[in-house]
């Protein structure tokens, strides 16, 4: 099937503009809240792996990935596993600086690769053992393991930011959805 045919909506599929705009509004509310916290505090309450988590919350995806236990627990496991790997293998190295040098077989990049691999193995096993399966949290493990947010304070901020995201969703966004009838009806 060609590219354009894949984009065409068939009779068995439908675009629900209301649901899609509702999900977009919900994501906007999440990031206005966390962005405001980041701006007011000067601390990194916004980081890349919050995007997929906010998306899952906003679109009404299945509970296995988005229940508070999974989202908060998954990111907590990932942040701690990333920090352990970073401290053991790449302490003091930041991925952006290491790749900026552009040296083949750089020892710094090698240490970051090992840190990333170990963080992903620990995170995978940790989430499976704790039943906190939240795939978006794997990005958190790499953010920490690659030196982007790798202090104890930043690791705590990650966990607090995720808990605030879930709490904000469950209290404010859910109320807005109920009040204005903008909860997506068709989780995708």
From TrEMBL:
<feature type="domain" description="HPP transmembrane region">
    <location>
        <begin position="15"/>
        <end position="164"/>
    </location>
</feature>
<dbReference type="InterPro" id="IPR058581">
    <property type="entry name" value="TM_HPP"/>
</dbReference>
<feature type="transmembrane region" description="Helical">
    <location>
        <begin position="111"/>
        <end position="129"/>
    </location>
</feature>
<feature type="transmembrane region" description="Helical">
    <location>
        <begin position="141"/>
        <end position="166"/>
    </location>
</feature>
<dbReference type="Pfam" id="PF04982">
    <property type="entry name" value="TM_HPP"/>
</dbReference>
<keyword id="KW-0812">Transmembrane</keyword>
<protein>
    <recommendedName>
        <fullName>HPP transmembrane region domain-containing protein</fullName>
    </recommendedName>
</protein>
<feature type="transmembrane region" description="Helical">
    <location>
        <begin position="76"/>
        <end position="99"/>
    </location>
</feature>
<keyword id="KW-1133">Transmembrane helix</keyword>
<feature type="transmembrane region" description="Helical">
    <location>
        <begin position="21"/>
        <end position="40"/>
    </location>
</feature>
<keyword id="KW-0472">Membrane</keyword>
